[in-house]
Amino acid sequence: METILKAGNIVKYFLQPEPFRVLNGVSFEVFKGQFVSVVGKSGCGKSTLLYILSTMDTDYQGQLEIKGKNLEGWKQNDLARFRNENLGFVFQFHYLLPEFTALKNVMLPALKLGKYSKEEVESRAINKLRMVGMDSYAHKLSSRLSGGQQQRVAIARALINDPAIIMCDEPTGNLDKANSQNVFDIFRDLSKKNQQTIITVTHDMDFASASDHVVEMQDGQIIRA
Fold first, then answer.
1. Burial environment of residue 162 by CB neighbours within 10 A (0 to 12, 13 to 18, 19 or more)
2. What is the DSSP string of 99-122?
3. Collapsed DSSP state (helix, strand, coil) of residue 71
4. 144 — phi, psi (to 5°)?
């Protein structure tokens, strides 16, 4: 199988209010098309790890490779472009712009990337909305959508640039059981049918146990992988 992400001996300190090692030599790899859930009690370091894996936190020791590229020492502008082109993000809160339609929200990362014409971006955005069952809501203001619908639009937005990996931080944390299942089903289809790699941090053990692979953390270390 093709390795899409590799973390080697990741160590992370928080310096306030006093030095504290929050990640203690974390190493693992993720393969293309794999649906991985990272679990553990609050404070175990799983969200901190996700932000390092997403290249948004560069203040750590260790090695991080994504798509075979060693990202150590990259400048922030280069990392920002790499993120926009190769990583998609889904958070507990959808972070949609309320004054924009679902379609325009999905288009934004692709317009920023500048790889396609506006017409191509719009066509791609409609296609991504179709993948999550939201194409019929494309021209509706995001503020007029339900919580579950908003999260599906957020997933479509994460997909717009065909990222190598979708990284998720508690993607079902604000959703009821039915909508949580909808989000899981979307991720499962993306993984199985599109070979989309997904790494998600979650407290939802039902969600995690149904994914391909569970990584369990405790006190800044991986205790099950």
1. middle
2. TSBHHHHHHHHHHHHT-S-HHHHH
3. coil
4. -95, 5
Inter-residue contact 103 to 130 (CB < 8 Å): no
Residue of 163, 133, 167 whose CA lies nearest to 148:
133
How far is the C-alpha of 172 from the C-alpha of 180, rounded, in Å?
5
- 3-state helix/strand/coil string of 24-54: EEEEEEEECCCEEEEECCCCCCHHHHHHHHC
Contact 180, 204 (CB under 8 A): yes
What is the structure's pLDDT at 214?
94
CA distance from start to end of the chain: 17
> At 95, which amino acid appears?
Y
Could you tell me the residue ranges of all domains in the chain? 35-58+73-224
Q: Environment class of residue 136 by beta-carbon count within 10 Å: exposed (0-12), middle (13-18) or buried (19+)?
A: exposed
User: At 150, which helix (H) or strand (E)?
Assistant: helix 147-159
Q: Kindly report, residue by residue over 99-111, the tens digit of the pLDDT.
A: 999 999 999 999 9
Q: What does residue 209 show for φ and ψ, rounded to 5 degrees?
A: -65, -20
121's CB contacts (< 8 A; 6+ apart) are 107, 110, 111, 160
- Looking at domain 35-58+73-224, its CATH architecture is 3-Layer(aba) Sandwich (3.40)
Q: What's the predicted TM-score (pTM) here?
A: 0.90
Place of tokens 């919580």: 147
